[in-house]
Design a protein that fits this description.
By secondary structure, the protein is an alpha+beta fold. The protein has one domain: Immunoglobulin-like, CATH 2.60.40. The chain contains 2 helices and 9 strands, in the order αβββββββαββ. The chain has a 7-stranded antiparallel beta sheet with strand order 1-2-7-5-4-8-9, with helices on one face. A two-stranded antiparallel sheet has the order 3-6.
Length: 161
C-alpha cells in the first residue's frame, strides 16, 4: 500500500469522525445541571474551598462522554467561585449522573460579595449563574451549560425575618 493511499485512508477516517461529531451536535437539547449539595474542603491561606455536587441530566438520545469539567459560579453578577476536575465519565442517554467539582473562593471574591450584599436592592434575594463546560472530544470542544436563578436566604432558613 502506497503512502498516498494510507494518507487518503487516514484523511477519510478523520473526516467521517468529524461529520459524526457534528451530526450529534445538531438537534440535541441542552444538558440540565443543578446543584444538589456542597461540602467543605480545606483551603490555603485566606481562600475558601468546597466540593460542589451537580446533578447532570441528559435529555438526549445519545450518551455524553466527558473527560473533564470546568465551572464558574457567579453571585450578584460577580464571579464568586471557580473549579475544574479532570474526572471522566458518562451521562447516559435519557439519564443522569452526579458529578463532584472542587471549587475555590478567593478572599477578594468573598469581600466583593459582602459589599454587593450590602448594596442589594432586594434584601434576601441573590441572583446566581452557574456556567461550565464538559470536555467531550477534541472535535466538538465540549458541551457547555448555563443554569441561573435566585437564592433566597429566607427559603434557606438563613434570614432573620
Amino acid at each position: 500500500m502506497s503512502i498516498f493511499r494510507v494518507l487518503a485512508l487516514v484523511a477519510a477516517l478523520m473526516f467521517s469522525g468529524m461529520l459524526s461529531s457534528c451530526a450529534s451536535m445538531f438537534g440535541s437539547d441542552p444538558l440540565r445541571v443543578n446543584i444538589v449539595g456542597l461540602s467543605p474542603l480545606s483551603g490555603q491561606g485566606m481562600e475558601t474551598r468546597f466540593t460542589l455536587k451537580l446533578r447532570v441530566q441528559n435529555p438526549n438520545d445519545g450518551a455524553i462522554q466527558y473527560s473533564g469539567v470546568s465551572l464558574d459560579l457567579l453571585l450578584n453578577g460577580l464571579l464568586f467561585a471557580s473549579g475544574v476536575s479532570a474526572q471522566s465519565g458518562t451521562v447516559p442517554r435519557f439519564g443522569e449522573a452526579v458529578i463532584e467539582v472542587p471549587m475555590t473562593v478567593p478572599a477578594l471574591a468573598a469581600m466583593r460579595q459582602a459589599l454587593s450584599v450590602a448594596k442589594n436592592p432586594t434584601p434576601g434575594e441573590y441572583p446566581y449563574m452557574m456556567r461550565g463546560r464538559f470536555a467531550t472530544s477534541m472535535w466538538t470542544g465540549g458541551t457547555r451549560f448555563v443554569e441561573q436563578g435566585s437564592l433566597s436566604l429566607s427559603s434557606l432558613g438563613l434570614a432573620g425575618e
